[in-house]
UniProtKB/TrEMBL annotation:
InterPro entries in the record: Actin, ATPase_NBD
SUPFAM superfamilies with a match to the protein in the record: Actin-like ATPase domain
Keywords linked to the UniProt accession: Signal
Name under which the protein is recorded: Actin like 10
Pfam families membership: Actin
Organism: Lynx canadensis (Canada lynx)
Membership in a protein family: Belongs to the actin family.
Signal peptide location: 1-29
């Protein structure tokens, strides 16, 4: 058992920082200091990759109510999302100006062809604007700022120096730039102008937690904390809390 936020940081060689995770099911902003996750300062957004895939299907069907689009399997929609979608750095401006759209065509297995235009950048936008899906909670940049705001002032700059991105939904082109831009804007807006978050976006961040897990599991200090079957059978579930808390 290990914190995914800590494992994400470990994949970059860090043990302190802010982990910003956007995977398939959920997004998190979690401060980590000296290898320990700061649960009281962790914020969660229930919009992530699976939600965006469903949203892309809705956008496509609204544009072209073809039965074959409704029948597309989830895996095909997910692949289309990964291949074609990107994060806009000026969502409202791009939405208003069709000259700034970058349409692409895709073909279904039955030979039918469809065009994606504004859907390409509208699909990932709910991570930044959950209100597009009718949710009142703040977007991921605001949650990342709130996580930094919640930690003690003496640690805030140190954690902001290592903002590690992790998860497949951070791989959209433009995601890192947009998050950095909005996080800096949040800092300025709330009187933290001197705070300059530094984002760490490794190419392999889609599997950062897995990579960090393999690194941590190889450490001798971690191996000393393993629970064997015999230990669990003797002590029961109480042992899990004693070892990992």
């Amino acid at each position: 058992v290990a914190s995914t936020a800590l494992l994400a940081l470990c994949s970059t060689g860090a043990f302190s920082g802010l982990a910003v995770e956007a995977g398939a099911g959920v997004c998190h902003a979690t401060p980590v200091y000296a290898g320990h996750s700061w649960h009281e300062a962790t914020f969660r957004l229930d919009i992530a990759g699976s939600t965006l895939s469903r949203y892309l299907r809705d956008l496509l069907v609204a544009t072209c109510p073809d039965p074959s689009l409704r029948a597309l399997p989830r895996k095909a929609i997910t692949q289309l999302k990964k291949r074609c979608c990107y994060v806009s750095l000026d969502f409202e401006g791009d939405l208003r100006n069709s000259d700034r759209h970058h349409p692409v065509s895709f073909c279904l297995g039955n030979g039918c062809s469809f065009c994606l235009s504004s859907e390409r950048f509208r699909c990932p936008e709910p991570i930044f604007q959950p209100s597009l899906l009718g949710q009142a909670e703040p977007g991921l940049p605001a949650l990342a700022f709130q996580a930094l705001q919640r930690v003690p002032a003496t640690l805030r700059t140190r954690l902001a120096d290592t903002v590690v991105l992790a998860g497949g939904s951070t791989l959209f082109p433009g995601f890192t730039e947009r998050l950095e831009m909005e996080l800096e804007a949040q800092c300025r807006r709330h009187g933290y102008g001197a705070l300059r978050p530094h984002l760490v976006a490794k190419p392999g961040r889609g599997t950062a937690v897995w990579t960090g897990g393999s690194m941590v599991a190889s450490l001798r200090s971690f191996q000393q904390r393993w629970i064997t079957r015999a230990m669990y059978q003797e002590c029961g579930s109480r042992l899990v809390h004693e070892v990992f808390n």
